[in-house]
Design a protein that fits this description.
There is one protein chain. With about 900 residues, this protein is an alpha/beta fold. The chain has 5 domains: about 10-130 and about 185-315, TIM Barrel (Alpha-Beta Barrel), CATH 3.20.20.140; about 135-180, no CATH class; about 320-420 and about 815-885, Rossmann fold (3-Layer(aba) Sandwich), CATH 3.40.50.300; about 460-660, no CATH class; about 665-785, no CATH class. Strands 9-8-7-4-3-2-1-10-11 form a 9-stranded mixed β-sheet, with helices on both faces. Strands 13-14-26-25-16-24-23-19 form an 8-stranded mixed β-sheet, with helices on both faces. Strands 15-12-17-18 form a 4-stranded antiparallel β-sheet, with no helix packed on it. The longest helix has about 60 residues, at about 615-675. The two termini are about 35 Å apart.
Length: about 900
């Protein structure tokens, strides 16, 4: 391929196609003479804003101004202008003949490939020998070859026939000669069509202002429409954008050619206050600055033309891949010959298509890019022998963070890898997305709720609740080494009763009162000692906490001081008041213990004094023992009461988990509903229309659904239930729906855990309901999707892939780039032609789209801004690029892509989508 000056493809530039030169018959440029006029004119053009790249050099009847401009350009002037196009302007004869009538201006825009001499000899010389003169007031007649001298002579004769008091209304001799020189536009057009030198090297423009001035009446309406509809484009020169929009709307209303371009129609220097001055132009064209680039607006007017103040390239912010850089030839796979050649490939911000024959590396390039950013690649994986890319630092991707003139750029290389937010649809992925749950999870990603899951804190709460229940049950079931359930209520009530009875057996009427006091004192001593033990524990815990928390406070204060915040700090903790209080209580408890012991010592002396005949030590020891047993039993019974209360509360909480579980799954369901309902909220009205079109045309809707998989649930039940008793599993225990499931947890599950049904289970049934790892296999929240009035389970594999693709477009339309490897492999041709082409044309404004393809429609009909041609020579892959208006690219498309020539023909006729009523984009 020859050297291409525009490898990045079609880009927005300002085109002013109607600029008169100082050689024009009518001009108002400043200067004492022609040289001064030309110098000021050229300086004006050279000082145009940088976005001006193409000028149409317009002259009435002559080519001299364009010829002069070429001479200046050859001498190094006008370096800021990339293309000059010759434009010849004529007055055509329809409606002409009187001074008060506006003459319609017809402009012929020639290709710059035609030299001034060719235009002169093949067109102007032929045309100017076939003209009509408008009769003057006195019927002045004149004939001759057209030149400036002959026109001046003709104008002079016309003015000589005018009353002297009317001469002030007339212009110069040259102007009046030109104003009364009219041509038959049919003859002009016929000559252009039939001349071999000129064929396909021109476009026709009609002046809108003059055309609009013609009256609409029964005699003229057909002629008026015929004139404008014969033209390729319509020229106007407006004061502002609002005037342009009104003019455009009027043409649409009149149902005529509305391909309207704003031009300066410059007759004045840029410092003039007149409307028709240099630099006053609002037309942006997205094309190479070539004549072929200009022709693209005929085929794709909506895509290629914008009338506005600022560069349309920056209308929408979007991150993009901006360049592929391969600094030296590199092997793509370790140990294989195929390699990338050294290259630097700039990337367009809109639709990029990579084409090439089999084995030329079009898909390989996309997969290598995806691998650079850790995207999954199915096309280059083999289950038995995975293929690994040679991840080289010599392959780099430049990333532009936003769509602004001075946007920050980052470069990532394949060795270091990186993480970027873009969508990669690998070859064959759409066909592989068929499983209900897999597609549901993919759609969660699309809705940006892929992190939606069971609440972690709630799951922790469930685990803690079940753990508490387990510990409580184990506590009640605990046995000592004698095999006694010492935490059993009945056991401790029996123990207390036995001690009370024994205590009665050792008391008589004489010693009962003293023993009661004695045992009461023992009870008090035991209680005080128990309190002292607990106070000691509290005091230790406070000391430890104080040391720990003060260490943390000290660290925070140090960090605060580092920030030079010197007037604040967090005070340390001392618990001094609590420690003082504890010591005070300890002292009083010790006093109580000593007093009680002293009283018991006195009681013992009284027994001795009264001459107690029995074994006093045994009596008091037994009294102390029995009282201690009574007290221990009472303490234990109180603890049992607390534990039973805790157990009942936990059991009730477990039974109430049904409602809380339901609430949690409803929350997840609502998140999906909200994600879908809020889909359009962050978009502009224009963007919202695009998304609505995608969703509504295919009747796509999504809502959250709590999905209870009864089949999976029954498979799990087999592990838990005695199959001799429960043969029909869930049906036998009354669970056939998600509502049954909630009711079972609330009202029935307890019978299988603590009740009579427990013996019919093989494992703890509560695990099946409350263990997330068990539950997630049969109970989950999914997006319930409808596509063309069908639910997901009713869709074919192809329809599921199409649905996934449309949702990717609708939900990620205005954010990250999309890389799509060979869409036609996964989608039928009807969908590509009727929908995907139209989708790409709309979405590329809002996001960068990069595809590899062998489908001509996705390249030509979608009006790709950049075409990258992949080649393989001796296992070395090379890539060249350009726009659809580039002749080398056109040849490659026609050669490589089946139906390429037909696609170009259809595009030129502009019939594919407009004629297809079934297309939602028609």
């Amino acid at each position: 391929m020859r050297q291409n000056n525009y490898p990045k493809g079609s880009e927005w530039r300002k085109w002013d196609l109607h600029v008169h030169t100082p050689y024009s018959i009518v001009n108002h440029y400043k200067g004492k003479d022609n040289d001064e006029k030309w110098e000021k004119f050229l300086s004006d053009l050279e000082n145009l804003p940088a976005e001006f790249k193409v000028l149409g050099i317009n002259d009435y009847l002559f080519i001299d101004g364009y010829r002069k401009m070429l001479e200046y350009k050859e001498k190094g002037r006008l370096k800021n202008i990339e293309l000059l196009l010759p434009v010849i302007e004529f007055r055509i004869e329809k409606f002409a003949g009187h001074k008060e009538f506006k003459k319609v201006n017809l402009h012929v825009i020639f290709s710059n490939e035609l030299s001034p001499d060719i235009i002169q000899k093949q067109f102007l010389d032929a045309i100017t020998n076939h003209f009509k003169l408008t009769p003057g007031i006195n019927g002045t007649k004149w004939s001759g070859v057209i030149s400036k001298e002959s026109l001046e002579d003709f104008g002079k004769k016309i003015k000589e026939s005018v009353p002297k008091d009317k001469l002030a209304d007339y212009g110069s001799d040259l102007e009046e000669g030109f104003n009364n020189l009219c041509f038959d536009e049919d003859y002009i057009l016929k000559h252009l069509e039939n001349n071999t030198f000129l064929k396909d090297k021109y476009l026709i423009a009609i002046g809108k202002t003059e055309w609009e001035s013609l009256a609409w009446n029964d005699q003229s309406i057909a002629i008026k429409k015929d004139i404008i509809n014969k033209a390729n484009v319509v020229f106007t020169s407006v004061k502002d954008i609002k005037d342009f929009e009104k003019a455009k709307a009027k043409l649409k209303e009149q149902n005529v050619n509305d391909l309207l371009l704003d031009c300066s129609d410059a007759h004045y220097n840029s410092d003039s206050q007149e409307k028709d001055r240099i630099g006053k132009c609002f037309t942006w064209i997205k094309a190479d600055p070539t004549f072929e680039g200009l022709k693209q607006i005929i085929y794709e007017p909506e895509e290629r033309v914008r009338i506005q103040e600022n560069n349309p390239e920056y209308d929408f912010d979007k991150p993009t891949f901006s360049k592929i850089i391969i600094t030296q030839p590199l092997e793509i796979f370790n140990g294989e010959k195929v390699k990338f050649n050294k290259t630097e490939l700039p990337l367009n911000k809109n639709l990029i298509t990579i084409i090439g024959g089999r084995g030329t590396g079009k898909s390989l390039l996309l997969n290598y890019i995806a691998n650079t950013f850790k995207k999954p690649i199915l096309a280059y994986q083999n289950k038995d022998k995975p293929v690994h890319f040679n991840e080289s630092e010599h392959f780099a991707i430049e990333w532009q963070k936003s769509n602004t003139p001075q946007s920050e750029k980052i470069t990532f290389n394949a060795k270091d890898k990186g993480v970027l937010d873009f969508i990669f649809i690998e070859q064959g992925k759409l066909k592989n997305i068929s499983d209900y749950k897999i597609l549901a999870n993919e759609i969660k990603k699309v809705l940006k709720i892929d992190n939606l899951q069971f609440d972690e804190n709630f799951d922790k709460e469930i685990k803690e609740l079940l753990d508490d229940l387990k510990k409580l049950k184990e506590w009640f079931e605990y046995k000592n080494e004698k095999g006694e359930k010492i935490n059993n209520r009945q056991f401790n009530e029996s123990k207390k009763q036995e001690a009370e009875n024994l205590l009665k057996t050792i008391t008589t009427v004489d010693n009962r009162q003293k023993l009661e006091i004695y045992t009461s004192n023992i009870k008090s001593i035991n209680n005080c000692e128990n309190i002292l033990s607990k106070l000691k524990d509290i005091k230790n815990r406070l000391e430890n906490f104080k040391a720990d928390i003060n260490n943390s406070i000290s660290n925070i204060n140090t960090n605060i001081q580092k920030e030079k915040i010197n007037d604040v700090s967090i005070p340390s903790v001392d618990f001094e008041s609590q420690i003082v209080a504890i010591k005070s209580v300890e002292g009083k408890l010790i006093t109580v213990i000593e007093e009680k012991k002293m009283k018991n010592s006195e009681i013992k002396k009284e027994f001795e004094k009264q001459g107690y005949k029995g074994d006093l030590e045994t009596l008091l020891s037994n009294a102390e023992k029995y009282q201690k047993n009574i007290q221990e039993a009472e303490v234990k019974l109180k603890e049992i009461e607390e534990r039973e209360k805790q157990l009942n509360e936990r059991l009730q909480q477990r039974n109430n988990l049904a409602d809380k579980l339901k609430e949690e799954y409803e929350r997840q369901k609502k998140e999906i509903d909200n994600a879908w309902n809020n889909l359009l909220n962050n978009f502009s009205n224009e963007q919202r229309k695009v998304v609505s079109k995608i969703l509504e045309k295919r009747e796509i809707s999504i809502e959250g659904e709590i999905y209870f998989n009864l089949k999976a649930f029954n498979e799990k039940l087999k592990e838990y239930l005695d199959l001799r008793t429960y043969k029909n599993l869930s049906e036998d225990i009354g669970i056939n729906s998600v509502d049954d499931y909630w009711n079972f947890i609330k009202n029935t599950l307890k019978n299988f855990i603590e009740g009579k049904e427990k013996e019919k289970t093989k494992k703890e049934l509560e695990d099946l309901f409350f263990n997330l790892q068990e539950r997630k296999d049969y109970l989950y929240v999914i997006p319930k999707i409808k596509f063309m009035n069908k639910t997901l389970d009713q869709l074919s594999v192809g329809q599921r892939g199409t649905l996934y693709l449309l949702l990717q477009f609708a939900t990620n339309t205005f954010s990250s780039p999309l890389i799509f490897d060979q869409p036609e492999d996964d989608l039928d041709n009807e969908f590509i032609t009727l929908e995907l082409v139209g989708l790409f044309k709309e979405l590329k404004r809002y996001r960068q789209i990069i595809i590899s393809t062998h489908n001509a429609n996705l390249v030509v009909t979608a009006d790709a801004e950049q075409v990258i041609v992949a080649n393989n020579k001796d296992e070395t892959l090379t890539y060249t690029s350009g726009s659809l208006e580039n002749s080398e690219i056109i040849n490659s498309v026609c050669k490589i892509l089946e139906g390429g020539k037909d696609a170009f023909r259809k595009r030129e006729k502009n019939t594919i989508l407009k004629c297809n009523k079934d297309s939602p984009y028609a």
